[in-house]
Amino acid sequence: MSGAEASIEVAEALALAARVAEHDGVAALSEDHRLALEGGRPGHLAWRGGDGALVALAARAHDAVELMVDPAHRRLGWGSQALGEVLAEEPETRLWAHGDLPGARALAASAGLRPVRELLKMSRALGEAQAREGGAVDAADGVTLDLVALDEATDPDRHRALWLDLNRRAFADHPEQGRWGQDDLAAREAEAWFEPALMWLAYPRSASGEVAPRPAASVWVKAEAPQRAEIYVLAVDPEQAGRRVGTRVLAEALAQVARRGWREVELYVDGANLAAVRLYEGQGFAVETRDVQYVAATG
């Protein structure tokens, strides 16, 4: 078996990820890691068979790696070799296993890795009832939330800046989301699925009609498939905790999704974020799949 190499053709890597996803029934690459590959960020490793074909890949984004092996080359030691070389290079690397599949669990256990984080993919069906529930976001405590989309903003650059500021504060403890800057936002806006009409900021408006200068929350919807949308990001200002802002904004987002004809909606949430999990369960979401992050056991 050949050792790792850092020279990777993006198209070749994406083709491998597609084969793995088709075989396993879950995505092999997260969006973050795909963008890291396409953007030429360093740290990725590849392994090739005797014929030069790509058989294993370790894609890196920030401090986490997503490792995949071509289904046609499994049970031949490629996974163990690739994982061993990744850990030898950076022992504290965090590794994602999409779908929490038995093979990934066995490989992690053989290397002495332990699970430290769980990412839940939750989903639910939508119908006419959700579409009829749309409209102005209901008032609570005398405050109404006015939703303004990016394509409605009088100053789009300010809209983006306010979105990033809210995102940083809402996800201050999140290892990926809280790091987003202008380049990360621009990369998402360049994606084929992006629609400025589906990226909202929610501004509090008092009973007297005064609108706050800063948003209380944001919600961003992604077209995932012809019949399925994703609540891509839902962020609530920490100062708005306890005011049911997240519940109200999510309900409006679901109404917007239903009115556009999508019949299913999904989202991702950290399993340790129990308040968010309860919020989504209360809106009819249930766990569809689980991704697990592993690190080397210590002590």
From TrEMBL:
Sorted UniProt keywords: Acyltransferase, Repeat, Transferase
Highest taxon of the lineage: Bacteria
GO biological process: mycothiol biosynthetic process
Entry GO MF terms: mycothiol synthase activity
Annotated EC: 2.3.1.189
Coiled coil spans: none
Segments forming domain N-acetyltransferase: 148-299
InterPro entries associated with the record: Acyl_CoA_acyltransferase, GNAT_dom, MshD_Acetyltransferase, Mycothiol_AcTrfase
One Pfam short name: Acetyltransf_1
Top enzyme class: transferase
Name of the featured protein: Mycothiol synthase
